[in-house]
Design goal:
The chain is an alpha/beta fold and 318 residues long. Helix content is 41%, strand content 21%. Helix 2 packs across helix 9, helix 5 crosses helix 8 and helix 9 crosses helix 12.
């Protein structure tokens, strides 16, 4: 009988070891954005490095973007998410699209790269934001980051939502509508080059409208999230000159419930391999410890803070 019990114990232990070996490390789901946007592609690259160097299996999913990712983390559906820094601030403070109640169930991992507010059109008569008056313009889904960016830019140009014929469309829907002549222009907020815009410029006579001068100055005076940015010539097919615009910052967030060691390891997996990530995705060239730790309006996760402290950077936590 004792031998049978011993055999049973040994078999149970062997099965447990086998299951652990097969199961690997932890698992996380990362909410990103449109499949034709920068979040999704760059999120896939980050997920691979997190898997390879932090032993965390990351499932990258296409979503409706920043607000959906914050809500998904709050609901427990996602553990990681890419978000605009301004939308993150809205959630943390309970304002704009989060006026129904603040969400503080997430923490910052790091700032990633500049997200350009890109105004794209195929109408040669649209040369400035002011020219959008009376036009059919895609301004993103209601309450989305793109929506508020578009409203901010229109306001800075002396226009309101009522001055245009607003269409509330995703990146991919916006590009399809432009191709079909259903809209005159679209706001797309993402790292440049954005695949959806690249495709549009490759097969059509699309171009970017600058957001500069008094419009940019007024915008930055009223909204501290924005900074100026120049999209270099050649970023898109047919783009012969630099295009001036404004940006917010793409940011990686994580559930506040995530274990400190896991977040430390995934942060290390990204920032110990910045040069390698840059070879796989152009936005990786913008990764830096200084950029990762600056301009955040929500607190960092303690695990990420520990990694950055080792690099000589102190960040706020709760």
């Amino acid at each position: 009988m004792k031998m049978r019990k011993l055999f049973a114990v040994l078999m149970a232990a062997a099965i447990a070891v086998s299951l652990c070996a097969c199961g690997g490390g932890a698992k996380m789901t990362m909410g990103t954005g449109s499949a034709t946007g920068t979040y999704y592609g760059f999120g896939g690259v980050l997920g691979q490095y997190i898997k390879n160097y932090a032993d965390i299996e990351v499932t990258v999913v296409s979503t409706d973007g920043s607000k959906a990712n914050i809500q998904g983390i709050d609901a427990g559906d996602y553990q990681l998410g890419t978000v605009q820094s301004d939308v993150m601030a809205y959630a943390w403070e309970g304002m704009r699209s989060f006026e129904g109640g603040k969400i503080d169930s997430f923490r910052v991992v790091a700032g990633l790269y500049a997200e350009a507010v890109q105004l794209v059109t195929m109408d040669e008569n649209i040369k400035s934001v002011a020219d959008l008056k009376g036009r059919s313009v895609s301004i993103g889904a209601p309450g989305s980051g793109v929506y508020f960016n578009a409203i901010d830019v229109l306001t800075a140009a002396g226009l309101s939502e009522a001055d245009i014929n607003p269409q509330y469309q995703s990146f991919s829907d916006s590009t399809d509508a432009l191709k079909d002549g259903k809209i005159d222009a679209a706001f797309i907020v993402a790292g440049a080059p954005t695949p959806a815009i690249t495709e549009l410029c490759t097969t059509n006579s699309a171009y970017l409208v600058p957001i500069d001068g008094d419009v940019a100055a007024s915008l930055m005076d009223s909204c501290p999230f924005y900074t100026t940015y120049s999209i270099p010539a050649g970023t898109y097919p047919g783009q012969t000159n630099d295009v001036e615009t404004v940006t917010v910052k793409a940011t990686l967030i994580v559930s506040a419930k995530a274990e400190d060691d896991q977040v430390y390891n995934l942060t290390k997996a990204i920032f110990d391999h910045m040069s390698d990530i840059a070879k796989e995705n152009g936005k990786g060239a913008e990764l830096s410890i200084a950029n990762a730790t600056s301009g955040m309006t929500a607190p960092f996760h303690p695990g990420a803070a520990r990694y950055f402290a080792e690099q000589g950077f102190t960040v706020p936590t709760v």
